[in-house]
Amino acid sequence: MIIVNLDVMMAKRKIGLGELAEKIGLTQANLSILKNNHAKAVRFSTLDAICKALDCQPGDLLEWVDSPSDHPE
Amino acid sequence: MKQKELSTILQAILILCLLALLLLGAWVVPSIGAETAEGVPSLAWLFWPALIAFWLTCLPVVAVLGIVWQLSNEIRRDNSFSTENARRLKWISVLALGDTAAYLVSAVVLMALNALHPGIALLFFAILLFGVAVAVIAALLSHLVRKAADLRAEQELTI
After folding, report:
1. From the CA of B89, how many Å to the nearest CA of chain A?
2. Rounded to whole angstroms, how far apart are CA atoms A47 and A9?
3. Cα B85 from Cα B67, distance rounded (Å)
4. How confident is the model over B13-36, as pLDDT tens digits?
5. Which 12-71 residues of chain A touch chain B by CB within 8 A?
6. DSSP type of residue B25
7. Class of the A2-61 domain?
């Protein structure tokens, strides 16, 4: 499964949820959904805006980890 | 708001339907039954069983009216596409199918008793067709609403 490491990057860049949301033009609620790994999909435009705001690469934000749900019996 | 108007109109129609059903169950059907019992004394004993059976088949209709009332409330809240509404529509389908089955059984029983007047048979046939049509349409709508609810959830969770 894909996990979102947005909180790690935000901590590195010392930026809060509200400030980032304002910078990229998202609501805090939606950014929070993304940060807490509840999102089902991410638009390229959102990824683009976050990478621009945090000066990072998509790979810094997204990570694949093996999980039991990836191996249905 | 258009959906508020639609919801209000729907609820007004539902109240009329309920009143019509009450009128049918409390006055129209019993008086037709009483007339038939007077005209055909050999079938007079069927009056109460038939009337009670009719009242029992009215219960699912009242339940469906209640469910449609809840659906119209959801329309008012702009929450048409939800899995809860899909479940409600499925219940309407099940209730319609159950009621249709009840009328089919009643028709068979009346036929066995040699009491199925051609006029009543025609009425039963119309009720059966209507019941099956409601069941099929409600099942179809339930499927569509569930699919739409899935799409909506996916869209809302695309950031």
Report:
1. 27
2. 13
3. 9
4. 999 999 999 999 999 999 999 998
5. 26, 30-31, 33-34, 38-43, 46
6. I
7. mainly alpha
